[in-house]
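**Protein record**
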Amino acid sequence: MASPETQPAADQDLRFPIGHYTLPEQPLTAEERGAYLQQLMALPTELRQALDGLNGLQFDTPYRPGGWTVRQVLHHLPDSHLNSYTRYRLALTEDNPTIKPYDESAWAQLPDITIVPPDVSLILLDALHARWVVLLSQLTDEQWLRTWYHPEMQQTIRLDQALVMYAWHGRHHVAHITSLRQRMGW
């Protein structure tokens, strides 16, 4: 079940089908981190299930008016999570590094998005999450308190807070696809 901070409101727009995330102020317990790690581990399988049986026209359908296509959402997930994986590695080896933001919308318009078959990004996500979850599952309580600085947010983010963000991020985008399928009767 989703935590209270991610419950969708009755009038929630299509951009946030599971609601918004809230960064925890207090450090997460080992049990809480374990639950979020399970969500990260499950994402590749849940994404595959959400995409199962879609055809080319359906992959090129926006999940909402003016939104990304299913294909763009699919390719965005490994792009975003690869950036996060790199940010974790920087935070574990440097003191509060300033991370490099990127223009997600511009990345979603690059030509590989329309050319690369969905399976390529699914395989990338599988491998990335396998490695990322192993790294995160080995962190000590002290390492989870390490940070990076996000210049666009103008905020220092603890690694346990980032775990909450990226667990939500995966569920958020899978819900874009599953809610579109439900609305379209696919």
Observations:
- The chain has eight helices and two strands.
